[in-house]
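Entry:
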Amino acid sequence: MMGLRSIPLIVVLMAGGALAMYLPAAHALVLRQHEIARAFFYSGSFLLILIAMVGIATLNRPPPRAARAHLGTLAGAYLILPPMLAVPFTLAVPDTSFANAWFEMLSSFTTTGATLYDTPGRLPPSVHLWRALVGWLGGFFVLTAAMAVLAPLSLGGMEVISGRVPGREQANQITRVADPTERLLRQSLALLPAYAGLTLALWGLLVLAGESGLVGLCHAMGTLSTSGISPVEGMTSSSAGLAGEVLIFVFLFFAISRRLLPGTAMVDRDTPIRRDPEVMMAFFFLLGVPVVLFLRHWIGAIETEDSRNIAAAARAMWGGLFTTMSFLTTTGYESTAWVASRSWSGLGTPGLILLGLAIVGGGVATTAGGVKLLRVYALYRHAERELERIVHPSSIGGQGVVARRLRREGAYVAWIFFMLFAFSIAFVTAAMSLTGLEFEPSMVLGIAALTTTGPLADLAVETPIRWSGLGGAAKMIAGAAMVVGRLETLAILALLAPATWRR
């Protein structure tokens, strides 16, 4: 670690991406698809040589200490890595363009999961593995960056409970502050065993449930990274059936709260998990949304004289529960019972519910996107307190310093972020409309990109929207929205703020 301290962080990330290319190369070699194996092997080898030359040239370069450099590295990763990761994709799929390969890798690395290839058979199995692997690495990068870069700057949702100004490091008496490369490596070593171990555990359980090896691995990586990437048509083409959905549902809880994943640092570590705000908000949505949908299903069943069909009712309830969990964590897997539940009651596509769940998002310092549960909870507690003061003007809020800070400073920053997020949706929708799209597709695609929930385009509207139908300008706008949604607007503003340019 001491030797890597002087190497720029972006060089380390590029080297990790190049090394990852050897896994699909080995997979293609086992399948005797030698052209695809050569595409990944040669690309990885060439890029490693190029990266080694860049690393040697910048070996003794003093690492910058400014907060802007930390955030600039994150932004640079989303600008530099996707084109690099698209090189073997273009060689392995020769009848596609580099622009499409870039969009596919950017979508995977930001854990959005939007794909331009509507037919799974269009891509070779090793390329599907590469998409899932890039999404898995993108999720791991989000986790480590959240704890090593964003948390020290009170960004990424930590500003709600830290009480510090977003974008500035806390002043202390430590003589030497770890540079971003050292922080990221240290946090990676703490998170990798749990992150990789949980992925392998879910893969093994899915295989035991009847899933094939490649599909099970891709679904396991898509679940832990919340990318929702699948080499088949999602859960509807899965061989694991209901058992596979139950397993994925359980492992999606790791995107609800950072407390559930070992190796994550917590500001509010003294709060019991049963009182964790994110867990309570998640259970509110997991119980509320399926019950509302089920009651609508039940009314529809009475109207069709099918109210005694207990099996249909159970399928409807499970379809609502799984799909709610999937879109709340911005994963985007659709339950096989989701279509059956709508047919059972005659219910149309509940697009607004899915859009709302994706906007709420998962937990802070997890792989999920969206506004985040903690920010929504802070706004809820602030509104609750304001209503209480209307009834009892002289009342005292109580519940300690942390709760008061959450209702005041935390709610203030959460409201700012929510307004910035809403403005981003409006801006992206307007920009997509200028490319020739109608308002509804523009809004759905904008929310899907900003919340990193690619499957929203297929499920949030009556007629599925195909990412492959976008023009070049629309793809560029959607790609930029994915990066903004992944980095979050507060981090981007902190990167551009002149106050962060000082050392």
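Residues 171-176 have pLDDT under 50 and may be disordered.
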